[in-house]
Amino acid sequence: MNEKRLTLYRRKHLGYIFQQYNLIPNLNIKENVEIGAYLSDNPLDTDEILKTLGLYEHRHKLPNQLSGGQQQRTAIGRAIIKNPDILLCDEPTGALDYKTSKDILKLISDVNKKFGNTVVMVTHNDAIKNMADRVIKLRDGMIRKNYINENKIAAEDLDW
């Protein structure tokens, strides 16, 4: 696949949630979420996403007026508004406290169920594997384990 086709594939099919939120500081929360919509032929409804993420009442605030968890939820909204087939999550709880981390994991799980996308999560937190359908463990760039999780537990029941 050439670079142009690869770029179009990423734009059309992938959503990204980064460890660092990468929010635009002079845009309010609604605008930060909406900025991803132009990348899609079939974006989701902004207000529905904000309500799902518990951010609707904060939609006119700037990022620096929110907690870390609210900023992370805004980043999740930006990633899912374009209605991606695959949601790539790079350490989505890495910069958050324990309670907020569990809230974000539950939210990602809820988003997966509600919008039907595939979630690929990269994490160093071994406990998170317990909420996954499939676990692929890498070490030194090599797949060391690849299995279906037969004993999946809910995000809110995770403990570490």
TrEMBL record:
Origin: domain of life: Bacteria
Official protein name in the record: ABC-type antimicrobial peptide transport system, ATPase component
InterPro entries registered for this protein in UniProt: ABC_transporter-like_ATP-bd, P-loop_NTPase
Pfam families named in the record: ABC_tran
A GO MF term: ATP hydrolysis activity
PROSITE patterns on file: ABC_TRANSPORTER_2
Domain ABC transporter: 1-160
Organism (species): [Eubacterium] siraeum 70/3
